[in-house]
Specification:
Elements lengths: L1 H10 L3 H33 L16 H52 L7 H43 L1 H44 L8 H50 L4 H26 L1 H22 L12 E11 L6 E12 L3 E5 L6 H8 L7 E6 L2 E4 H4 L7 E4 L8 E2 H5 L7 H10 L3 H6 L7 E2 L6 H14 L6 E5 L7 H14 L4 E5 L11 E6 L2 E6 L1 H16 L22
Parallel strand pairs: 3-10, 3-11, 6-9, 9-10
Antiparallel strand pairs: 1-2, 1-4, 4-5, 7-8, 11-12
């Protein structure tokens, strides 16, 4: 509902086209409802062997059959012209509405770029929204108005006419229409959730294409994104098919029940036999409209999902225009979280992933975030980076309060999130490190060596001009480049968030990586999550999560003491893991020189 309210401003200027289409739709519906009655009058003398006379307005000398045949033809002509005007008016409405929306979104993107404000929408994804999403909105809006709204009115009109013929007949038919609408609603709701994920995948795919620096796109990463996008589209088609099948079953059952009621009514004299013929004609007419109502109705979920993505750009810009967006300065004092909850999923699958009553993170602190898989480590870092909006809660940045449901995007400028799987398309090593033009190549080489990426430098003799994609590197090498890039960004963001940076690395490489992070991060605040044991003595603090909640918040020594018994009991039953960084025995003799 909120999405429709936000879109009202772009709809209002085209109200005349909408009203013209609505008036034409009423004419189409009226003509459709009247058609069976002309056929009834024309066929009554032959089917029911009863005489019928021409209407009072017709000349007496004309055969009644010709009068009704002419009326039938005239109604068809009126309906055809009204259908043409309806489609034209609704098309103009959809085109104008989407043109306004697309223009506003493009203007907002230009404004965000010129002011340095970041909505979290990357360039490739923004292009996908402005072109792909708006095209779907335009086609979907026209389809909804022509098929769903018009056929819905037709179903209501036929129900009213049948109630006038026989109340029981009309009630059963109306009940069938209601059941079809309910099935359509559930189908649209399911497609909305699926379409939101599908469009997010397409946005990520567009970003991969847009971010490439040459024609040689990283094939593996591109294929993965394309495959995921195709799966979502196939699922949407499956949901549409199931809803259409349900509409056929409901319609067939409704018609059989109505025929049974009509036949009984005819035998008892309650229903005129000629009116039963009218119902049969309505039944033949209404199959296609009701199926179209279901088929096009479920696509409403896709329209709403696309509309939300485009409106996300425009509503962010409204906050900028209203002066609500004020850039956060570098963190000087602390970050404080209060009553924060992050919930993911839709409907019955919606669940809490992070729940924090109160958490204080002083500036300059080095914090290790540990916990089992699924404990909420990644979601917590994404929330602090502004990449995952919280469902509720407050965050204080040096005393400035941010309402996370509305202002989480403000964190983007002063935080840097290193994901668990860094990826990029084919580009030079210098571009992968994002080195400014005034910074010499040697600075990047030195940082790569500090991060343990000597193998990368040896592999490509072209040095900083070597071209490669993320798919040509191991996971550990990807992270070495991503961390080198992050540490080279000075002054850069004041809060560094790293999601499992040591996975995919050997013990020696991981130690060297952590040493480089601590050395070059300087006074910046650092939060690092780990999926396997690491040396934590150099950290100021350890946060252990379980079920999305902080269960231990202590310095490394206290955390080690609290978990010693648990580790001992696990060690007695679990098989040895040779590919871990031992937090108990990793002392000074294990340090990399």
């Amino acid at each position: 509902m909120k999405t429709l309210v936000d879109a009202h401003a772009y709809v209002r200027p085209h109200g005349r086209s909408f009203c013209g289409g609505a008036a034409a739709a009423l004419v189409v519906v009226g003509a459709r409802i009247a058609l069976p009655w002309t056929l009834k009058a024309a066929l009554k003398p032959f089917v029911l062997h009863s005489s019928d006379q021409a209407p009072a307005w017709a000349p007496v000398s004309i055969d009644p059959l010709w009068v009704y045949a002419t009326s039938f033809l005239l109604l068809l002509a009126i309906m055809g012209y009204a259908d043409y005007r309806e489609r034209l008016s609704f098309a103009r409405f959809a085109i104008g509405f989407v043109h306004n929306l697309r223009s506003k979104a493009a203007q907002c993107l230009r404004h965000q770029i010129s002011t340095g404000a970041r909505s979290g929408v990357r360039q490739g994804d923004a292009i996908a929204r402005l072109i792909g999403d708006t095209a779907r909105i335009k086609a979907g809006t026209k389809g909804f108005l022509v098929h769903v709204a018009t056929n819905g009115l037709m179903a209501i009109g036929v129900s009213i006419v049948l109630m006038a013929i026989d109340p029981a007949l009309g009630v059963v038919f109306a009940l069938g229409v209601v059941l079809t609408s309910v099935a359509t609603w559930y189908g649209a709701k399911a497609i909305y959730g699926r379409a939101a994920k599908y469009r997010a995948k397409e946005g990520a795919l567009a970003e991969k294409i847009n971010s490439t620096h040459s024609e040689d796109v990283g094939v593996d990463s591109f294929t993965v994104e394309s495959s995921e996008s195709a799966k979502h589209e196939a699922r949407i088609t499956l949901l549409q098919g199931r809803t259409t099948w349900a509409a056929h079953v409901i319609f067939g059952t409704t018609v059989l029940i109505c025929l049974w009621i009509g036949v009984l009514g005819t035998r008892s004299g309650r229903v005129d036999a000629s009116n039963l013929v009218v119902f049969v004609l309505y039944a033949l007419m209404m199959r296609a409209p009701l199926v179209q109502l279901a088929r096009q109705g479920v696509r409403t979920g896709k329209i709403v999902a696309c509309l939300e993505r485009v409106l996300e750009i425009t509503t962010f810009d409204e906050a900028v225009s209203a002066g609500e967006l004020k850039a956060l300065g570098a963190l000087k004092s602390n970050i404080h979280l209060r009553y924060v909850r992050v919930r993911l999923g839709k409907g019955a699958n919606r669940r809490s992933c992070v729940r924090i009553a109160s958490l204080d993170l002083p500036a300059g602190q080095r914090v290790a975030v540990v916990g089992p898989q699924g404990s909420g480590k990644t979601i917590l870092l994404q929330m602090l980076a502004g990449a995952q909006p919280a469902s509720r809660g407050e965050l204080e940045w040096d005393g400035r309060k941010l309402i996370l449901e509305q202002e989480s995007h403000l964190l983007v400028g002063q935080t840097h999130l290193l994901t668990a799987l860094p990826t990029w398309t084919r580009r030079t090593l210098r571009a992968a490190l994002d080195l400014p033009s005034d910074v010499p190549d040697q600075a990047g080489i030195d940082m790569l060596r500090a991060c343990g990426a000597k193998a990368i430098l040896r592999r490509w003799s072209a040095g900083m001009d070597a071209r490669f994609s993320a798919d040509e590197l191991s996971l550990g090498e990807r992270k070495q480049i991503a961390i080198a890039r992050m540490l080279l960004a000075i002054p850069g963001p004041s809060v560094l968030l790293m999601d499992d940076p040591t996975s995919g690395m050997s013990k020696r490489a991981a130690r060297k990586m952590l040493s480089a992070i601590f050395k070059f991060a300087g006074s910046r605040t650092v939060l690092i999550s780990f999926s396997r044991p690491v040396k934590l003595q150099k950290f100021d603090r350890v946060l252990e999560l379980d079920g999305g909640q902080v269960v231990i918040d202590a310095d490394p020594e206290a955390w080690e003491h609290q978990t010693e018994l648990d580790r001992s009991s696990l060690a007695s039953t679990a098989p040895a893991d040779t590919d871990v960084l031992d937090i108990r025995n990793w002392d000074e003799r294990n340090q990399t020189p």
